[in-house]
Amino acid sequence: MTLDTVLLAVGPGDADRLDELAEAVVEVANPADATVSLAHVFTSSEYDEVVARLDFDAGDDEIDPDEVATRHSTIRDLAAILEEHDVDYEISGAIGEHGPTIVDLARSTDADRVVVGGRRRSPTGKAVFGSTAQEVLLSSPCPVTFVRNDE
């Protein structure tokens, strides 16, 4: 199977595992000369907080999620690592619930592989809070690489 597009989807909890996520993406994208679709997924409330923190012009009614993602430190740090490894990438932003939105991005980018991060959770924690990674693993239209943070 050839890889043309690898989707690396990150959210607010991924800042502490950037090196691991980047390593996983470079491992699959570099040998295949694939393009990485580097996407930051925000819930509506996360998006509003980031827009306020990044000091976008309050008078701008239509703030582009792609622009917000491009200015986000997590995306900038990942982009720098991909550039160091000569991996082509495109940046996008999306607003919605993390799991379903990542699955939608996988479909819309025609991804051949999805890379997501997550953490170990108890069965009760998954039942009460849901699991983005579980949603993506079960619903993705392509194989998923899960990068776990054990902390």
Automatic annotation (TrEMBL):
Highest taxon, organism lineage: Archaea
Gene3D superfamilies per record: HUPs
Protein name (record): Nucleotide-binding universal stress protein, UspA family
Domain UspA: 4-148
Coiled coil region boundaries: none
Assigned protein family: Belongs to the universal stress protein A family.
Pfam families from the UniProt entry: Usp (PF00582)
